[in-house]
Amino acid sequence: xxxxxxxxxxxxxxxxxxxxxxxxxxxxxxxxxxxxxxxxxxxxxxxxxxxxxxxxxxxxxxxxxxxxxxxxxxxxxxxxxxxxxxxxxxxxxxxxxxxxxxxxxxxxxxxxxxxxxxxxxxxxxxxxxxxxxxxxxxxxxxxxxxxxxxxxxxxxxxxxxxxxxxxxxxxxxxxxxxxxxxxxxxxxxxxxxxxxxxxxxxxxxxxxxxxxxxxxxxxxxxxxxxxxxxxxxxxxxxxxxxxxxxxxxxxxxxxxxxxxxxxxxxxxxxxxxxxxxxxxxxxxxxxxxxxxxxxxxxxxxxxxxxxxxxxxxxxxxxxxxxxxxxxxxxxxxxxxxxxxxxxxxxxxxxxxxxxxxxxxxxxxxxxxxxxxxxxxxxxxxxxxxxxxxxxxxxxxxxxxxxxxxxxxxxxxxxxxxxxxxxxxxxxxxxxxxxxxxxxxxxxxxxxxxxxxxxxxxxxxxxxxxxxxxxxxxxxxxxxxxxxxxxxxxxxxxxxxxxxxxxxxxxxxxxxxxxxxxxxxxxxxxxxxxxxxxxxxxxxxxxxxxxxxxxxxxxxxxxxxxxxxxxxxxxxxxxxxxxxxxxxxxxxxxxxxxxxxxxxxxxxxxxxxx
Amino acid sequence: xxxxxxxxxxxxxxxxxxxxxxxxxxxxxxxxxxxxxxxxxxxxxxxxxxxxxxxxxxxxxxxxxxxxxxxxxxxxxxxxxxxxxxxxxxxxxxxxxxxxxxxxxxxxxxxxxxxxxxxxxxxxxxxxxxxxxxxxxxxxxxxxxxxxxxxxxxxxxxxxxxxxxxxxxxxxxxx
Lengths: 609, 175
Description:
The structure holds two protein chains of two kinds.
Chain A: E1 4-7, H1 15-18, E2 30-33, E3 37-39, H2 40-50, E4 55-58, H3 65-73, E5 79-82, H4 86-100, E6 104-108, H5 112-115, H6 118-126, E7 131-137, H7 153-157, E8 163-166, H8 173-185, E9 191-197, H9 198-202, E10 204-206, H10 226-238, E11 242-246, H11 248-253, H12 256-266, E12 270-272, H13 297-305, E13 308-312, H14 318-321, E14 332-337, E15 351-354, H15 357-367, H16 377-389, H17 403-414, E16 419-422, H18 426-434, E17 443-444, H19 455-465, E18 471-476, H20 486-492, E19 497-503, H21 508-517, H22 533-539, E20 543-547, H23 550-562, E21 567-572
Parallel strand pairs in A: 4-5, 4-6, 6-7, 7-9, 8-9, 11-12, 11-13, 13-14, 14-15, 16-17, 16-18, 18-19, 19-21, 20-21
Antiparallel strand pairs in A: 1-2, 3-10
Chain B: E1 6-15, H1 20-30, E2 37-42, E3 48-57, H2 59-71, E4 75-81, E5 86-96, H3 100-114, E6 117-122, E7 125-132, H4 134-148, E8 149-154, E9 158-161, H5 163-172
Antiparallel strand pairs in B: 1-3, 1-4, 2-3, 5-7, 5-8, 5-9, 6-7
């Protein structure tokens, strides 16, 4: 780093922008030290380190060998976790990102390595998780020739990334990686992929880290329009029956403290979406619990009966709205979202505010009149009655373990203080209903995409960043087998991951739908052969425990949590327990179905979505 | 604008980079929107391209399309060309027989009426061209048909907002 020369301070990848006004004689070139010359592979690693990446998850291969060589040389400054399948790397990066608020990083080689990341990228896209994926690509001279392990990963991932890059020149490499991180974390966060051909990682160039990123066509709106904010405050203070509906945007923007303040000052009932769980204290008197298809009766009825819905950082997902035409017909709707395309996408709203959830909520707080806290007596009386008459409940049994029982015991032991990931299915909904995550970054679940196999690698990613406490993974016997190979990674890294399998020997959620909507024709949902999860755990070098009787549940959970390292708890639960309440797909909130007193009678068949 | 599925023209200013057109086109395909026509070319600003795209949908669909296109990282601006606030032109080139004195006479009359030109003539017919609005091109082709069209190509329409309306159109969909 000894010599000095004149360089442009504009990142070369944003070349379009510095040409906009034509040549500007007044623009003085910036004098800065030239970076040390190194090969592209080293530039990748140095760039990651500059971005503050301490841990990345990946799997090596031919096209990315140079980068792995540099990772080896820099292993004292950056930790690479070798996963057992690239899908695990993507989900682990998501778990890391969601639990820390930082950008998660995963790495894979070209072709199959890159395509194995796709599910994780799509998952991160749907759940707005900041992620950077670095993939190797065949050499620029081979691109398009159907070379060995070649896949057009930029083409494949275009619809499931926020943005992606193919780096064609080593001089663009550092600026592209800098920009990728900026894009991933800013605005509505999302996954960004950087595809780097092998020859680019071999070419040498001085490493210069740009100071800033400027994309003229990309300027996310953070602050809400003051006039809209004022209108919102008028509406909120004038309306008695209001409900605050919060989603993943509150987690991403760190708005939980502002939400709590807003809710308390205005005495608003609060209902989080699946992605918003943990953003409002679950034990708070104003919490109605989760809403949506398997949300609480009170939360859903509150939406059906409210005169005003204040949506902050949620997107009116179909699992929340049910039948859109019948959704909250009595309510005016305020929608705070950083993504303008979320506004009026599925539900027409009365008052949109485009902006960051935390910033806009703070603006709302600042604009509130100094009135005393409203009583909303009639509204709260009604909500309390619903809560009393239709609480979350299940019929416990003496001889068979009810899955909800496992979660209530777990909630009792942990009080929601541990990070908890889930897979996808019935266990996920029970966990959402009963696990009282007390912090927005302690709840890791696959919401939008509904990716079975997410749970274990996500827990692993979180555990890498939170070594002190156990990280829970609530899974099912179906989901767990979709990324089961990551047990090896967990054991290898000595991670405190505690997997709890609610094992009903069924693909439970599909079976539930078949029971309710297909006259119990159980098509391909029974796992006719399933492995012994305790032995599997032991084979991987983890601890395996099993509970088969209700009397064993507590002891197994306590022992599992107290045992150091990776533990798999195989809990044999009732085969045909169903998740209730349930709003059938395409129904309205007020058509919510509670657990029947007698064994279920199949309701009228409905079109399924 | 109450018509349930009407035609809309969008003028999209996008950075001229590898794959950006694929992003725009892929967005339409992936979200089930239709593209009626598509024209792409450079602008006066180096590094920027203009995409003029005609699509169909009701008001809600068009609102969603504009927002989704605006969301694309390298799209700087989307202008929604509304009503009579813009000029729209497309170009067609036609090989037509127009045999016999009657045919030639009719062709000459048509070209005079529409402002079209003869590009070349052969013993077996003519190559003619016309630049006009999409509707006028439709009707030109209808009238050429009896003269024997052998081959025809038409470009996608391009569109430009009228200066007075430009501010308005731009304000509607600032990126």
